[in-house]
Amino acid sequence: MPRQRMGLWLVGAKGGVATTVITGLAALSRGTVPPVGLVTALDPFASLGLVDFPDIVVGGHDIRGGRLIDEARRMWTESRAITPDVLDAAADAFTAVEARLRPGTVVAAGDMIRSLADDVGVARVESPQAAIERVRSDIAAFAAAEHLRHVVVVNVASTEPAPARPIPADFAAIEPLLDDAAACPLPASSLYALASFAAGASYVNFTPSTGATPPALRLLAARHGVATAGCDGKTGETLLKSVLAPMFAARHLEVMSWVGHNIFGNMDGKVLDDPRNKATKIRSKDHLLADILGYAPQTHVSIEYIKSLGDWKTAWDHVHFRGFLGTPMTLQFTWQGCDSILAAPLVIDLARLVERAQRDGQCGVLDWLACFFKSPFDVTEQSFAAQFALLEQWADATARSSSSAV
Amino acid sequence: MPRQRMGLWLVGAKGGVATTVITGLAALSRGTVPPVGLVTALDPFASLGLVDFPDIVVGGHDIRGGRLIDEARRMWTESRAITPDVLDAAADAFTAVEARLRPGTVVAAGDMIRSLADDVGVARVESPQAAIERVRSDIAAFAAAEHLRHVVVVNVASTEPAPARPIPADFAAIEPLLDDAAACPLPASSLYALASFAAGASYVNFTPSTGATPPALRLLAARHGVATAGCDGKTGETLLKSVLAPMFAARHLEVMSWVGHNIFGNMDGKVLDDPRNKATKIRSKDHLLADILGYAPQTHVSIEYIKSLGDWKTAWDHVHFRGFLGTPMTLQFTWQGCDSILAAPLVIDLARLVERAQRDGQCGVLDWLACFFKSPFDVTEQSFAAQFALLEQWADATARSSSSAV
Amino acid sequence: MPRQRMGLWLVGAKGGVATTVITGLAALSRGTVPPVGLVTALDPFASLGLVDFPDIVVGGHDIRGGRLIDEARRMWTESRAITPDVLDAAADAFTAVEARLRPGTVVAAGDMIRSLADDVGVARVESPQAAIERVRSDIAAFAAAEHLRHVVVVNVASTEPAPARPIPADFAAIEPLLDDAAACPLPASSLYALASFAAGASYVNFTPSTGATPPALRLLAARHGVATAGCDGKTGETLLKSVLAPMFAARHLEVMSWVGHNIFGNMDGKVLDDPRNKATKIRSKDHLLADILGYAPQTHVSIEYIKSLGDWKTAWDHVHFRGFLGTPMTLQFTWQGCDSILAAPLVIDLARLVERAQRDGQCGVLDWLACFFKSPFDVTEQSFAAQFALLEQWADATARSSSSAV
Amino acid sequence: MPRQRMGLWLVGAKGGVATTVITGLAALSRGTVPPVGLVTALDPFASLGLVDFPDIVVGGHDIRGGRLIDEARRMWTESRAITPDVLDAAADAFTAVEARLRPGTVVAAGDMIRSLADDVGVARVESPQAAIERVRSDIAAFAAAEHLRHVVVVNVASTEPAPARPIPADFAAIEPLLDDAAACPLPASSLYALASFAAGASYVNFTPSTGATPPALRLLAARHGVATAGCDGKTGETLLKSVLAPMFAARHLEVMSWVGHNIFGNMDGKVLDDPRNKATKIRSKDHLLADILGYAPQTHVSIEYIKSLGDWKTAWDHVHFRGFLGTPMTLQFTWQGCDSILAAPLVIDLARLVERAQRDGQCGVLDWLACFFKSPFDVTEQSFAAQFALLEQWADATARSSSSAV
Fold first, then answer.
1. B182 & B125 share domain
2. Which of B109, C74, D138, D218 ranks highest by number of CB atoms within 10 Å?
3. Which residue is closest to C79 within chain B, CA to CA?
C-alpha cells in the first residue's frame, strides 16, 4: 500500500515562518536534524500514526514576487538563524515548492500589506467572491495534482488590521456581500478561510488576523466536514506569560503591573509598524493576564520594529507584584528567541495533528489545540500547563481508540 | 464552644522568616493587611475550616540571644521590606512570643551555626538524647500551657552542613547512638524532628537541612500519629525553575545549560558563606531540572552573601536552549524577591494545612504538599503546575468529605 | 558678619523633585544624612566657598493645591523611597516653605498640566505679560523678605508640550506679543524664565520644557546680569547613554540600534502620558547618540506611565552592536533608580554652583554645567566624562582665582 | 622602496583570539570587511603611518597539536561567531601561518595547561634557560626569514596560575635560577617575555598571566631597546566597569556592592575551571573599582565554564548603590560579547601601535596603552575615558612630530 500523503498549504508562503517550515521539512525528511522544537516528536505522540515528514507536501499563496530561495536565505543573511549548509541542502525543496506557489489576494488586506504585494500575478482588484473562488481552485488543484489525503491550510502571513466594520453573526447575512468589495466586512484572511473550507481543506490561523475567528465562519468548518483552529501562535513572550501568570495566581502574589516590550526586525515587524496592524497583535498578546489572574493588573505591551534584529524577537518583561505585608517585588525576563525558528515546528505540529483528527472524523473547532495559541478558540483556560494537559488527553484518547480499533 | 487553637513552633524563631511570620500573624489577626501571599487564602481552601489566624499561637527555639523585636526590625532597617508601622503594630505579639521562646541546641549543627549561638541558655555540650528530651519537653510544655489542639513544628533555621556519615536506614540502628554525640550521625535538625514526634507534634522542614528526610525518621512520623512534610521551601529561583522547565519540555526545546546566580545578604546568606552549608543548599536547588527535562543539561548554581542586599534575594538565571534546526536561543530572568516575605506566608499555610490534615487523621508524609518544596518527600513530580494540582485535589477531597460528614 | 543666604525658587514646588529637595536640605542642614548624591560635596568643590545647606532658603510656585507635607509623603507611601523618619524630621521645613509658595500660571502650559491645576489661587486666564509680572513680583518679594544675596530659579515642573509656533529669534519681535495670549508663542516655562530675569534671578531649566532655550531668551540672561543653564536634568537612562556611547565609539564598535524603554509612575509620568508632552521628552533623550557616535543608529525611546512604580524609573536599554568581522553582539541594562532621589541633589548642586558663578560675575549661559543636562546649552560635547572634565576645570579655575584674590 | 613589514608573534597561536587575528588580517588585507572593532582605524590614528594590514606577518607558538584551520573553524561550529565564508577566504592564510608555528613550552605553565599540551613537538622537560633560548631562536629565525622591521610578541595563551614563590626584584637574582626548573620562580609566560626581549622583539601581555609584569622583567625591556605593555586585555565586563564606575564617582553615588558573574565556554573558560588559574583572572578583574571609587565596596567576581556558550562571554553585573537620603538603587547589565571577536582587533591594534612607537625609539613600558588593559603597567588611572585620552594624546604628539619631521 502506498503511503498516504497530506498537503500543507501556507498562506504567506514566502515569509520567514513558511520558508523555515520548508527548510525544516527538507532536513527532517532526510533525517539530518533531530526533531527538536516539534511537540509531535515527544513521547505522547509517538504512537498516533501521524503523517511522516516526507509525506507532507507543501504549497501556498503569497503576494510577493521574488524567488523562494532568496527569501529563505534571509534567515541566514539577516538573522544568522539557519545555517548555510541547512539552507543549501533544502535547495531541491525550494524548487519543488516554488512550482506549487500561487499568487495570493490583497483584497481587504490593508494598506500596509497591499504595499508589499509585488508579485505581478496578484490581482489588485477583484470581488471577495472572485478571490475566494480563485483561492479555492488553487487549493483543490494542489490536492488533486499531488493525490493528497487531506490539505491543511495554515495562515502564516503578516498581521492584518482588524476589520473596520462588525461581521454579521450569521453567514447567511455575509454571503450576499461577497460580490461587493466595498460592502463586504471580511478581511483577506477570512476569504482564505472560506476558500479552504470550500476546497474541503482544514484551516489553521497562526496569526492574530481575523481568519475563521468570527462565529459565522467558525461554524462553517463543521458544515464542510473540515477542522479549524487558532488563533495566533504562542511562541515567545505570551507563551511565558501563560506559564508565569499561573504561578503568581497559585501563590496569591498580586500582580500590580506587567509590562512587555518586544523588538524585532523581520517582515512581520515591518508590517506591525503600521499602528492599525499593531493594534490587532497587541490585543492578542495582552488579554490573557486578566483571564488567568482573575483581576486586571495594569498592562502595557509594545512592539517595535528594530531592523538590526532580523528574525530575533527580543522581549523584556517587567512584572511588578506585591507579596505578603504589601511588599513590592519584581520579576524581569529577557527572551531572545528566533521567531520563525520557534514558530515553524509548531506549524508542522499543527498540520500533523489536524490531519490526524480529521482522519478520525473530528471536524469544526479543535479546542484541544489551545496550547499552541495566544487566543485559542472556544477555550477560556489560559494556563499553558492546563492547555498542554488538554493536548495530552487528546493524544491519550486517540492512542487508545486507534489501538482498540486494531 | 471555645475556638480551638493550634501551635506553630518555629525552630530558628529569631530569624527573618520567623519574625515575619510573627509580624504577619499579628497583622492578619487584626485584619490590617489582606492575606496576599497566602495560598490558603485562595478560593479552593475557603471551605476547609482551616484554623483562623488569631488561633495560631507561636513559640519556638533559637540559639541566638537578643530581643525578638530587634531581630524583627532588621526587616526594616536592613531591607526596607516590612514597614515601621506594621512592625510597631506587632509589638505585643513580639512580647508574647518572646516569653514562649526556649534556647535551642547546637549539637551537630556545624561550626558556622555554632559560632552564631550567643544565647546564654544554649547548652553547648549535651548528648543528642539530652537535646531531644529537652526540646520535646519544651514543645510539650507549650502545648499544655496554651491548651493547643495540635502543634506543628516548622524548621526555619539556617542551613546546616550535610551529615558527614551515612544515616542508618533503620531507626533501631540509630537509637543506641543517641547517647554519644561523637558516634551519632544525626545533625541538629534531625534531633528537633525526633523531639517533635516524641511530643506528638507534626514536623515540617522548610530548609534543606536533614530534618526528617532520612527514611528511618520519615517512617517514625506515622508511628507517632503525626504528620511530616518537606523539604526546603520553594520561594524564588527554584520556584521559577519548576514553572519554566516544564515549558521547555512541553515545547521540545533542548536546554543546553541553565545557570543560576543568587545573591542576598541576610543571616541565611551569611551561613551559606560556609561552603559546607552551601553545598546542602545548592544540591536542593539543582536536581529538579533533570527530573523535569528527562536529561541533564549543564547546570550551575551559585549563592553569594552580599551584605547590602539584606533580605532581598536577587537571582539571575541564564537558560541557553536549542530550538528547531539547532538554533541556540536564550531566556534570562532576574528575580528580586524578599526572601522572608515570600517564605513567611507559606509557613503559615503549611501550619494550617498540616493541622487540618492531622485533624482528619492523616499522618506520615503529606506528599500533596509538594508544591511548597524544592525537594518534596515521596514525590517525583517536579512541575509546579502538576504539584499545585495535587494540592487542589486534596482540598477538593477534604472539602467533599467534610461536607458529607456534616 | 552674618552669613549670606541664597534663595532657591522652585517652579513646580509640590512635585517629587521639589519636595525631595526640601526634605533633603532639612536633613543636610541638621547633618543627619551624609551628602551622598551631591556632586558639590566631592573634593574638587570643597574649597570654592559654596553656600552652606542651612543658608539655602526655598520658595516656589505651583499650580496644584494640597499641602506640601502631603505631597512630600508620597515619596514614602507610593514609592518607599524616603523613609518616614526623614520626612518627619523635615516637618518644620515644609511649614516654612509652604508659607513662601505662590500660585503658578497655567498660561500656555498645555491641556494636561492645565487639568492638574487645582490650586484655587491659580489665575486660569491672564495675559502672558500679566503672568510674567506676577511671577517676577513673587520672586522679588521673596528675595527682599528673606534678605537673599541671590535667587536661583529652577524649573522642576512637569514637561510641557513643545510650542506650536516658531519663536522669533529676536526678543524685540516677541515683546509686543506678550499682551495677547492667543498671539504669544511662548509656553509657560518661558514666561517663568522671563520673570526670573526681570527679578534679577538666575534661571535653570531642569526639564525639557522650552524655558530659556530659545536664543532670544538665552541672550536676555546676560543682559540682566544673571546666569542661565539647561536643559533637562540627566539622571538615569540618558546619563548612562552619555557614559556608554563614548565607549562604543572609542572601541570602534558599530551601534546598529539602541532601544530604551522607560516605565515609571509619578506625576511626571502621568503628564507624559499625553503624547504632546511626551514628544518633548523623547526628543531630549534621543539626540545625543548620533552626536557621540558620529552616525545615526536606529533608536527608539519609549516612556510609559506605570502607576505601581511610583517614583521608581525603571529603564531597560538594549544596545545591538556589530564588532570585528561583522559579529553582532548585545549589551542590555536595567536601571532601577528613584527619579526624585537622583534629581534633587543635582538641583541643590546647580543652585550652589550658579550662585557661586554669579557671585564671581559670570552671567549668561553657563556651558560648563553641561554634565548635568541631557540637552546642554551651547555645548556639542555629549560624552559625560568630557562634560564632567569641563566642570572640574571651572572648579579648578575658580578655586585658583579665589585663592589668588585673597 | 619596498614596503616594510612587521611580525606579529602570537603565544597561544591556535587559540580563539589568535585564529581570529589570523582570519581577520586575511579579510582586512583583501578589504572584504570594514575595520570595525579596530581602534587604530579611527580618525585620530589615520595619519600615523601605521603598518598596513597586508604587511603584518603572523607566526607563533602553541603547545597544542591539531591543524590551525580546524581550530579556527570552532569559531563557527561551536560559537556561530565567524561565518563560514570568512573562514574559507582565510584558508591560504592558515596554511601560511601554520608553516611558521613552533611548539611552545610547558615549563612552569601549571598542571591544567600542561594537560592540554598534545603537540608532539613540545618538550615536556627542559630547563627554563633552554626554553628561553629555544623560543628566542624561533622568534629570531622568523624575523630573519621574513625580513621583518620589528616583531611584536603578544601573549594570547590561556591564563596560568600565579607564581607560587615571590619573584626577586632584581634580575641579577633571577638569572642564576634559570638553569634549574625546580628553583626558578618564573612561570612560562615570563620565559616567553625574556625570550622576546633577547630576540629584540617587543612583548605585549594580553592575559593576566605573569609575563613581563615583575619589575625585574619590566625594566629589561628598555635595556633591550624594545617595548612592553600589559596586562590582560580589557574586552567586556571589566571594560564596562572602567566606564561605569567613574559615573558613580562623579555623581557621588555610593556603590555598596558590585557583583559580576561571567559565563563562557571556550578553551580559556576550561582553563579557568582550575581554581588556581581562575584566581589569577579574578584578581585582575576586580581591583579597579576601589581605585576608581576611592573606597572598597563589597565585590564579587565569578567565572564559570559553561560549554554551550562557546566563545560567547555572557556577564551579568549587579551594582547596588545608595543615593541621596540613603535610598538604595540598582543597575544591572548583561553583556553578550564574543570574546575572541572583541579581543582580536585589539591585538592587531597593539601590534601596530607598539611597532609605531618602537620605530620612534620608544622603549620600555608604554603606559599610554592603558586603555587596552585591565591591569595597565605603571598607570594608576583606571577610568576608561581618561585612559583613552592618554592614547589620543600620544597619537596627537606622534602625528605632530612626524609631520614636523617631514
1. yes
2. B109
3. B80
The H or E element spanning position B5 is strand B5-11
Question: Are the CB atoms for B19 and B66 separated by under 8 Å?
Answer: no
Last residue of a domain, one of C282, C315, C337: C337
pLDDT, tens digit (0-9, with 9 covering 90-100), for B210-241: 999 999 999 999 999 999 999 999 998 999 99
Residues of chain C found within 8 Å of residue B84, distances taken between Cβ atoms = 84
- Whether residue B192 sits in one domain with residue B90: yes
Range of lowest pLDDT (A375-384, C30-39, C395-404): C395-404
C-alpha dist (Å) from residue B103 to B64, B139, B184, B194? 8, 12, 21, 17
C-alpha cell at C144: 527682599
| Contact (Cβ atoms closer than 8 angstroms) between residue B328 and residue B256 | yes
Same-domain check for residues B65 and B207? yes
A334 & A365 share domain: no
Domain that holds residue D190: 5-233+341-405
What cell does A87 get?
539552507
Q: Quote the distance between the C-alpha of residue A120 and its chain's center.
A: 26
List, for residues B177-188, the tens digit of each pLDDT value.
999 988 999 999
> Closest chain C residue to B79 measured between Cα atoms?
C80
How distant is the Cα of A237 from the closest Cα of chain D, in angstroms? 19
Q: Which chains touch D (3 or more CB pairs under 8 A)?
A: A, B, C
- Of A282, A313, A338, the domain-final residue: A338
- Residues in chain D with CB shorter than 8 Å from the CB of A334 are 334
* Shared domain check, A23 and A125: yes
Q: Answer whether residue C245 shows pLDDT above 80.
A: yes
Residue pair A327/B235 in contact (Cβ under 8 Å)? The answer is: no
pLDDT digits (tens, 9 = 90+) for A102-140: 999 888 777 777 788 877 777 777 899 999 999 999 999
Does pLDDT of D76 surpass 90? yes
Q: How far is C119 from chain A (nearest CA, A)?
A: 30
CA R_g for chain C: 21
Cross-chain Cβ contact D252/C341 below 8 Å = no
pLDDT at A368 over 50: yes
Q: Which of residues 41-80 of B touch C (CB under 8 A)?
A: 80
Q: Considering CB atoms only, which of C253, C325, C342 is closest to D323?
A: C342
The pLDDT of A284-310, averaged and rounded, is 90
Distances, alpha carbon A1 to alpha carbons A4, A7, A53, C382, in Å? 9, 19, 18, 75
Report pTM. Answer: 0.96
- Looking at the structure of chain B, the number of domains it has is 2
Question: What CATH number is associated with residue B245?
Answer: 3.30.360.10
Query: How many angstroms separate the CA atoms of A136 and A138, rounded?
Result: 5
Question: Is the dihedral angle over the CA atoms A196, A197, A200, A202 positive or is it negative?
Answer: positive
Find the helix packing angle between C384-405 and D384-405, rounded to 10°: 90
CATH at A178: 3.40.50.720
Alpha-helical regions (H) of D78-187: 84-89, 91-98, 111-116, 128-146, 171-174
Q: Would you state the pLDDT for residue C284?
A: 67
User: Please, which residues 104-163 of chain B have a Cβ atom closer than 8 Å to chain D?
Assistant: none
Look at the block and give the residue holding cell 607563533. Answer: D60
User: Would the CB atoms of D84 and A80 count as touching at under 8 Å?
Assistant: no
Nearest residue to C26 (alpha-carbon basis) of C305, C344, C262: C344
Q: Which residues of D250-275 are buried (b: 16+ CB within 10 A; e: fewer)?
A: bbbbbbbbbbbbbbbbbbbbbbbebe
Largest CA distance in chain C: 69
Clarify whether residues C200 and C256 are in a common domain. Answer: no
Of residues B364, B361, B371, the one with CA closest to residue B398: B361
Nearest CB to B261: which of D308, D316, D328? D316
Average pLDDT over residues D284-293: 84
